[in-house]
Design a protein that fits this description.
By secondary structure, the protein is mainly beta. It has helices at residues 5-9, 36-39, 43-47, and strands at 56-67, 70-81, 87-94, 97-100, 107-113, 116-122, 127-134, 137-145, 149-157, 163-175, 181-197, 200-210, 213-223, 229-240, 266-274, 280-287, 293-302, 305-313, 319-328, 334-343, 346-359. It has a 21-stranded antiparallel β-sheet, with no helix packed on it. The two termini are 42 Å apart.
């Protein structure tokens, strides 16, 4: 779960975030309404300014860390776009020194395969990625790094076009008689299954192999009369892989046959409340067994700003209290984010992200 994500959000560097390459081809994800609160943090726009609203021309992000009310560490990141929102320049500035972080897009071409469309991206002499589409939907993704690894993702959809199954596989890499690397046995290491009722996701299950541990996760969703997510129940169970049957899909394994590792057991509940405009006004994550609150957030909205107050209970009746202040421009893009921690009766500025956005004129 995303415990205290807000505390570390403001100074994160660019990461994967399901962006596969410079062309911004994205792997589809099963719906995750449990993340509705965290989506308010605008993490996608901060890390990947391409997703800001409007005809963006440039985005300058300055990350500051404070100590004793003064800036202790600062870094600036700049991204330049053309009119098609393709990145033409990207660099960092640290201690008044510029560090370029941009490379030309890899070779890309399209062809047909098995009645579908394939987009092949060749990143270098040994690495390529295949995206295979049918009826406009990505059905398979293959990533191959010669001599190192090969992975494959398979996607399945229901009649309404909703992603309901995702399977992930690894391939063993072996050498043939000429010492050339070849992909051999294919092993499923992850599966996600979604169930829909009346076009709303009602349940999601995840099965994952991690070394010698078989993790099972389940989320059950409940909605209010306005079809807003009211609460969800999260279950985590971990098992030894000793009883795993390699010829059976992960979701069809009989969990009762496995030895449970009870130290990893979790049962959590997430609860949402909404204001009169159907915006989230509070989110609480708690432990079902102990009824202990793990995270609690209250959100207030102003025309061009938002304030989030987060509370995280600690042992011995202690409590970490954090505050986050967001300011947005006329395109609803964040331009200022500040985080504070409470010390005694005072909120102390800890981190801030200042964002300068320029736009193309029509």
């Amino acid at each position: 779960m995303k415990t205290q994500l807000l505390f570390v959000l403001l100074c994160t560097s660019i990461g994967m975030f399901n962006i596969i390459d410079a062309q911004n081809i994205r792997l589809p994800e099963i719906e995750a309404p449990e993340k509705n609160f965290y989506n308010l943090l605008e993490e996608q726009k901060i890390k990947f300014p391409k997703f800001n609203n409007g005809k963006i021309k440039s985005v300058k992000r300055t990350y500051n860390i404070y100590k004793n009310n003064r800036v202790n560490v600062t870094e600036t990141e700049v991204t330049i776009f053309d009119r098609n929102k393709s990145i033409t320049e990207h660099y960092y500035i640290h201690n008044n020194e510029k560090f370029d972080d941009f490379s030309s897009p890899p070779i890309q071409y399209k062809d047909s395969i098995n009645g579908g469309l394939r987009i092949k991206i060749i990143e270098d002499e040994t690495t390529y990625k295949d995206y295979i589409y049918k009826s406009g939907k990505l059905i398979k993704y293959v990533e191959n790094a010669e001599n190192y690894y090969q992975i494959e993702n398979v996607f399945k959809y229901n009649a309404n076009g909703k992603l309901i199954k995702r399977y992930a596989y690894n391939f063993d890499i072996l050498e043939d008689e000429n010492n050339n690397a070849i992909a051999a046995a294919k092993t499923m290491n992850n599966a996600e299954i979604a169930t829909y009722k009346e076009k709303k996701i009602s349940e999601k299950e995840s099965f994952e192999i991690w070394e010698d541990i078989f993790n099972y996760q389940k989320i059950e969703y409940q909605y209010n009369l306005k079809n807003h997510l009211e609460n969800y129940l999260y279950t985590l169970r971990s098992y030894s892989t000793d009883s795993l049957k390699a010829d059976i899909n992960l979701e069809k394994q009989i969990l009762s046959n496995f030895k449970e590792l009870k130290v990893n057991r979790k049962n959590l509940k997430g609860e949402f409340q909404y204001n009169e405009k159907s915006k989230i006004k509070s989110f609480t994550l708690s432990d079902i067994k102990s009824e202990a609150i793990l995270e609690n957030y209250n959100i207030s909205y102003q025309p061009n700003s938002m304030t989030i107050l987060g509370k995280f209970p600690k042992p011995n009746n202690a409590e970490l209290i954090l505050k986050y202040e967001y300011i947005f421009d006329k395109f609803k893009n964040p331009i200022s984010i500040k985080s504070y921690y409470k010390l005694g009766e005072t909120f102390v500025l800890d981190k801030e992200t200042l964002i300068e956005i320029s736009y193309y004129k029509d």
